[in-house]
Amino acid sequence: MSSPTPRGLLAVLDQRDGHRCAWTGQESDRLVPQHRQGGAGGRRDKHRPSNVVWLDSILNGRIEAEAALQAEALRRGIKISGFADPTATPIEHAVHGLVLLDDDGGVHQTPKETSPWR
Question: Are strands 91-93 and 97-101 parallel, antiparallel or unpaired?
């Protein structure tokens, strides 16, 4: 069983993203904190602002079930490899654009040379 996302981290997410889905930019009562870096077991450092975004729970279920959406989530950086560094992995975020997220709740424009999408 996974541990719940700490309340302090949820407050950081709300301040950073305005309680909007990273994929759609929409507010919803179905938003859940989603770890970008998944994997079985657990990680001591999983509850970091760079590694967590708001995601619609229905969309998240579809991402887990549908290969095409999984691929798109990886392309956007909404889901990343368990070996990737979330602070160094760009995310195409519906609220902020193509950015890097830090562990202080900050958002930084992605340097063009690190961007695989533009």
Answer: antiparallel
**Nearest-CA neighbor of 72 among 103, 41, 117, 32?**
117
pLDDT of 44 strictly over 90: no
**Partner residues linked to 107 by β-bridges:** 101
Stated pTM of the model: 0.87
Report how far Cα 111 is from the mean position of its chain's Cα atoms. 19
What is the 3-class SS of the chain, one letter each residue?
CCCCCCHHHHHHHHHHHCCCCCCCCCCCCCEEEEECECCCCCCCCCCCHHHEEEEEHHHHHHHHHCHHHHHHHHHHCCCECCCCCHHHCCEEECCCEEEEECCCCCEEECCHHHCCCC
| Domain parsing of the chain, residue ranges | 7-112
| pLDDT tens-digit series, residues 80-108 | 998 999 999 999 999 999 999 999 999 99
Is the confidence at residue 41, as pLDDT, over 60?
A: no
Cα distance between residue 90 and residue 112, in whole Å:
10
